[in-house]
């Protein structure tokens, strides 16, 4: 079972993502802020991380950079899921190594498809 | 009978002598002798009239030392001549001003109305003054005939009438020889100087005769006088009101010496060079000292000689030598008094005739189309004949006044009252000399108020005395109001009506002048003139290039105009001189502004500055000067730039305006940016609930097989998030309304404790539900505040619900404390949560305080709530802030000023 880490500080959004991921056969881990996310990455070694950007203390960009600097392979895929929709925000997301950037509000279908695509393409 | 004829013959012989002296001086006017400072200084002694000659003794005999104030003031003023008169003289020379009316009207934008108004005040003040000179002549004459003055007689039997007419002829001959009033009347001035010398000589001789002939020196006079019952009073100043009266009377004569039309005439118009003033500074006081030297001995001597005989003290001067059979001395003394009276009449009529012609006659002819037409081309004769007619008219008026009214007053009262009248020119005239902001409206208001108060406090009582007005006006006051009694204006009584009347009129006049000038603005023309007047010494060399006119004029037109007044010969000469001096091409057809200015000044000498302006505008097509042109012109004349205050003012205004515009623009830009930020933050903030709503809606749509519980939970989430969305929208709208000022507070007197209790009551249920402990510490004697109950309630509810969010989840405790601090009423909400980091404490009140580039989230929960709270508290003139508690938790406090 593929592991997905959901990082967000909005309980309702976490709830919806958790439902969607479980329904599609993923093992779900949850982090409510950047610091928790980094710990969870180290501990659980997820295959993919759904990452919010605006969070208290450590933001999503930093978390992404941390993930992509990991020496141990395979490195987790990162998909940003953020309300920040400006081009500069998106560009920065890819700059720090994101595999995909999706803006809130999102289409559940598109998100699930993208996540499947990213995890399947893995060897 | 014989002695009367001797007096008549002597009088006319004396007048003939005057004609001779004046004629001789006129012929030899170019000689150096006639521009001597001694003649100039002596001519200033025209100040000493028959009032001095007879009245001083009368006043000293009855009232004591008061008479001195009339001379102490001018002596005090003499050192200031170098400051005040020199400046006036320079201005008048540059602008060709010849009378006080012209001077003031020129200062305030060459206003015709102001000039006319001042002229009328002058005439009203001076005609009675002239009439007392005639009275002095007539009375002194009657002393010889030992009869009452010929009161009921027809005028052709009255010597005073013939004397008046001869004086008229003299003044016309020697005072109106030249149309250009700025030209010196050497003959007239020399005659006046002679008269001054003569009256001084006669009076000194009498003084010596009384002091050393009838008595045995000063010591003897005074020791003999000790037996007079009121001796003490006569040689001391009344300690109760005397000093203040002295102050006001001295100030009065200080102003009179500068502002009296005849003084202005001799000091300013007849001045040939400013150097003369240096001699005047000591010569004139010396003259005044000498002429007063024997006043007290003569007065005391008279009292002693005529004790109990009921002789009028005003006639002591003549009665004393006559009583001792010194007829020759008496005749000489008579001539001395005659000279004092005639010099005053001659100079006053000259001055007033110029004033009347410049400020009333010429403007009238120029304004009136019919008159203007019928006198076209003959204006010069209007000016000259006008002045001559005015001289005769004024003399007749003075004579009539003397016959009809003047006989009922003493010499002194009318003299002082007319001093007060002309002193009203002081604020506008002297103020305008040193204060640039003094303006036309201020000058006119001050003059009118001063004039009205003068008329009310000093003229009305004389009209009552003359039975023209009922006497209950004096006793009961105007309209029966006791504080409007002319003699006790505002209920004040210092025992000296003249001092009081002067004080009230000059104070109110000055106040009005300053106040109105301060709150109103000058016209451009006025600004120009005020600049020239106040800084005359800076301008007097560059004046001809001053920018006063802009427009098109043809040299030929200007020449024609000037020739009408000055004659072709003088016009030619003036033009040649001007062209040579200013390097102007000989045959230019169009006149430049310098020529126009020069011509206007030449004309001003003949018809006064206000009329000159009107005349010039008939040949110059004046264009409205716009600011750009002024700029251009000023760049051409570099030195003028720094001087022209009008321009400075305008450019400062422009700068100010552009600065304001810049600020407004910055403000708008900032507001625009803030609005953008706000909108982006709001939309961002809305994305969160919408994200949840969309996600769960899709989940519900795509999954028919959800468990009932989960189905319900997802639906509830959608509802919750929708509500959140709605709250957000409401708050945004609320905030928008507050910022645009659409929300007005309904302020009432409130007890903050009551509002707090009401707010907490509505939250009891919620607090209990969350098991949060609530502690209130409400100050028992909290002062009232002015506030909007509903809005303050909203603030308290918001703060408490914030505290509920943040307080310790297990054993939550919220504390509400009210109290006073520094005149304000305070309310604090304390929680026992994590507190607010110091760096965020000032940020929590900003709307969604995370800005554009921030990726970190604000402390949970604060959206717009605190921003709205802050807005409400600010609208109450209060403050709101957040701190951390001593142990733990956050403390949010607001304070509102107490009533």
Which properties best describe this structure?
heterodimer, A: alpha/beta, Rossmann fold, five-stranded parallel sheet, B: 899 residues, mainly alpha, Helix Hairpins, five-stranded mixed sheet, two-stranded antiparallel sheet, 37 helices, 5% strand
Short structural description:
The complex is a heterodimer of chains A (123) and B (899). Chain A is α/β, with parallel strands linked by helices.
Describe the overall structure.
The complex is a heterodimer of chains A (123) and B (899). Chain A has 123 residues and is an alpha/beta fold. Helix content of chain A is 45%, strand content 20%. A five-stranded parallel beta sheet of chain A has the order 2-1-3-4-5, with helices on both faces. Chain B folds into four domains: 2-67 and 134-245 and 260-411, no CATH class; 541-641, no CATH class; 648-739, Orthogonal Bundle (Helix Hairpins), CATH 1.10.287; 748-897, Heat Shock Protein 90 (2-Layer Sandwich). In chain B, 67% of the residues lie in helices and 5% in strands. The longest helix of chain B has 58 residues, at 645-702. The termini of chain B are far apart. The interface between A and B is medium-sized, with 26 and 27 residues.
């Amino acid at each position: 079972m593929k592991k997905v880490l959901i990082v967000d500080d909005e309980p309702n959004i976490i709830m919806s993502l958790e439902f969607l991921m479980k329904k599609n056969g993923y093992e779900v881990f949850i982090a409510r802020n950047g610091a928790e996310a980094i710990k969870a990455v180290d501990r659980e070694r997820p295959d993919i991380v759904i990452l919010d950007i605006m969070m208290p203390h450590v933001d999503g960009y930093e978390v992404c950079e941390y993930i992509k600097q990991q020496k141990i392979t395979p490195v987790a895929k990162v998909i940003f899921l953020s309300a920040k929709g400006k081009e500069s925000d998106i560009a920065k997301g890819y700059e720090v190594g994101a595999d995909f950037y999706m803006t809130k509000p999102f289409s559940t279908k598109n998100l699930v498809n993208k996540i499947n695509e990213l995890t399947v393409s893995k060897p | 009978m014989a002695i009367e004829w001797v007096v008549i013959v002597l009088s006319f012989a004396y007048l003939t002598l005057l004609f001779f002296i004046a004629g001789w001086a006129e012929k030899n006017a170019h000689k150096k002798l006639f521009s001597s400072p001694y003649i100039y200084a002596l001519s200033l002694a025209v100040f000493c009239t028959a009032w001095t000659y007879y009245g001083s003794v009368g006043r000293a005999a009855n009232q004591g030392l008061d008479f001195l104030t009339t001379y102490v003031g001018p002596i005090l003023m003499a050192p200031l001549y170098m400051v005040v008169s020199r400046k006036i003289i320079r201005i008048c020379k540059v602008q060709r001003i010849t009378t006080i009316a012209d001077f003031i009207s020129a200062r305030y934008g060459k206003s015709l109305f102001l000039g006319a108004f001042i002229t009328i005040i002058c005439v009203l003040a001076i005609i009675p003054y002239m009439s007392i000179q005639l009275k002095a002549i007539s009375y002194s004459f009657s002393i010889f005939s030992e009869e009452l003055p010929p009161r009921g007689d027809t005028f052709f039997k009255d010597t005073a009438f013939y004397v008046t007419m001869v004086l008229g002829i003299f003044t016309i001959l020697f005072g109106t020889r030249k149309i250009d009033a700025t030209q010196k009347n050497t003959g007239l001035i020399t005659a006046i100087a002679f008269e001054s010398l003569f009256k001084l000589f006669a009076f000194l001789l009498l003084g010596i005769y009384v002091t050393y002939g009838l008595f045995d020196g000063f010591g003897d006079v005074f020791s003999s006088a000790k037996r007079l019952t009121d001796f003490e009073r006569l040689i001391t100043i009344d300690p109760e009101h005397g000093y203040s009266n002295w102050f006001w009377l001295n100030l009065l004569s200080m102003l009179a010496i500068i502002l009296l039309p005849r003084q202005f005439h001799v000091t300013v118009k007849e001045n040939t060079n400013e150097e003369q003033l240096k001699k005047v500074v000591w010569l004139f006081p010396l003259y005044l000292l000498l002429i007063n030297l024997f006043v007290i001995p003569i007065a005391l001597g008279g009292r002693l000689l005529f004790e109990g005989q009921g002789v009028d003290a005003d006639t002591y001067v003549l009665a004393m030598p006559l009583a001792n059979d010194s007829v020759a001395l008496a005749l000489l003394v008579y001539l001395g008094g005659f000279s004092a009276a005639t010099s005053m009449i001659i100079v006053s009529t000259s001055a007033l005739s110029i004033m009347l012609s410049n400020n009333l006659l010429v403007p009238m002819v120029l304004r009136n189309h019919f008159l203007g037409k019928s006198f076209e081309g003959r204006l010069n004769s209007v000016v000259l004949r006008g002045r001559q007619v005015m001289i005769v008219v004024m003399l007749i008026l003075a004579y009539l006044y003397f016959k009809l009214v003047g006989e009922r007053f003493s010499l002194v009262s009318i003299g002082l009252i007319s001093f007060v009248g002309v002193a009203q020119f002081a604020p506008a005239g002297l103020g305008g000399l040193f204060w640039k902001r003094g303006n036309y409206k201020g000058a006119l208001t001050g003059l009118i108020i001063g004039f009205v108060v003068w008329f009310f406090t000093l003229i009305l009582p004389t009209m009552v005395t003359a039975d023209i007005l009922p006497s209950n006006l004096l006793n009961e006051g105007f309209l029966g109001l006791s504080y409007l009694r002319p003699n006790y204006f505002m209920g004040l009584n210092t025992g000296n009506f003249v001092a009081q009347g002067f004080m009230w009129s000059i104070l109110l006049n000055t106040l009005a002048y300053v106040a109105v000038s301060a709150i109103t603005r000058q016209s451009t023309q006025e600004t120009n003139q005020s600049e020239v007047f106040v800084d005359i010494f800076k301008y007097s060399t560059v004046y001809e290039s001053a920018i006063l006119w802009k427009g098109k004029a043809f040299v030929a037109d200007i020449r024609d105009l000037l020739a009408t007044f000055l004659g072709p010969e003088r016009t030619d000469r003036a033009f040649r001189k001007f062209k040579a001096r200013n390097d102007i091409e000989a045959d230019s057809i169009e006149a430049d502004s310098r020529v126009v200015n020069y011509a206007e000044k030449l004309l001003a000498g003949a018809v006064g500055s206000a009329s000159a302006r009107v005349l010039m505008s008939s040949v110059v097509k004046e264009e409205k000067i716009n600011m750009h042109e002024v700029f251009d012109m000023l760049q051409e004349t570099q030195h003028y730039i720094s001087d022209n205050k009008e321009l400075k003012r305008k450019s400062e205004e422009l700068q100010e305006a552009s600065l304001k515009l810049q600020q407004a623009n910055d403000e708008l830009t900032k507001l625009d940016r803030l609005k953008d930020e706000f909108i982006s933050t709001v939309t961002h903030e809305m994305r969160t609930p919408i994200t949840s709503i969309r996600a769960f809606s899709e989940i519900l749509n795509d999954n028919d097989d959800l468990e009932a519980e989960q189905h319900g939970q997802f639906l509830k989430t959608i509802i919750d998030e929708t509500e959140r969305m709605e709250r957000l929208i409401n708050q945004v709208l609320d905030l928008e309304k507050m910022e645009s000022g659409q929300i007005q507070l309904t302020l009432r007197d409130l007890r903050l404790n009551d509002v707090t209790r009401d707010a907490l009551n509505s939250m009891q249920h919620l607090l209990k539900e969350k098991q949060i402990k609530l502690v209130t510490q409400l100050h028992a004697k909290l002062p009232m505040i002015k506030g909007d109950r509903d809005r303050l309630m909203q603030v308290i509810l918001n703060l408490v619900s914030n505290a509920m969010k943040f307080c310790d989840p297990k054993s939550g405790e919220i504390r509400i404390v009210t109290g006073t601090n520094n005149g304000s009423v305070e309310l604090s909400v304390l929680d026992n949560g994590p507190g607010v980091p110091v760096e965020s404490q000032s940020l929590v009140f900003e709307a969604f305080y995370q800005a554009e580039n921030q990726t970190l989230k604000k402390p949970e929960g604060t959206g717009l709530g605190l921003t709205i709270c802050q807005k409400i508290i600010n609208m109450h003139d209060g403050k709101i802030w957040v701190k951390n508690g001593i142990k733990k938790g956050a403390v949010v406090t607001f304070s509102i000023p107490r009533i």
